[in-house]
Input
Amino acid sequence: MHLARRFFRRGFSLIELMTVLLITGLLVSVAWPSYQSHVRRSHRAEAAAALLEAQQFMERYYAVQGRYTTASGAAPALPVRLQAVPAQGQPRYRLRLEGVEAGKFTLRADPQDVLAGDACGSLTLASTGAKGRTGQGLTVAQCWQ
Output
């Protein structure tokens, strides 16, 4: 009988268990949005880096060809590693060239799947170095951090 009392005294009451679950739930509800925001920001930074690298590719192309277009006037193809971010696996952003003319171009990174609802929308980078975004939620500076 003495052993049975000791066993029951070592357990947790239902109220203690519910209190721990409540505190854990509150902590998760506060931390989860912050975590998601951080993940989105890191994915945007990865896309911004890819846009800058694609801009360098276009500048090298211009240095060799003397124009941003091919001989037929079409946009040159970006290297495979610069067409999506990340280059392998499920892409979070797809990169493409827009408005390519002999003396100018615009690069665009379009969010995919889960990131499609991102406040910044698509990130853009012009041949002049002008950075932009299509979304309305954040400023250009915040999107390009």
